[in-house]
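Both lines are retained for reference:
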Amino acid sequence: MRLEDITFEQAIWKPVDAMNSIWELVCHLLFYEKRLLMRFLDETANEPQAEDNKSTFRLPLHDAYHIGQIVFLSKIQGAVDDRSKFS
């Protein structure tokens, strides 16, 4: 599965209003990836500071959780063949 294969309509679709769309999940992930990169580059003057590194170490779990949501939303829309490989 590649995000390039998701149509705009699929990206903004929500099964219920209380859930996030693929679009919203990707934007959320990009926001946190940018914060991690800025922290890595030590360019955090305008970024909120974490009290400790626990938040940094949780990012892989955070990403995996939301990527799972993206895959789920893709599958229930028929955008992903169950036999397809993820790349």
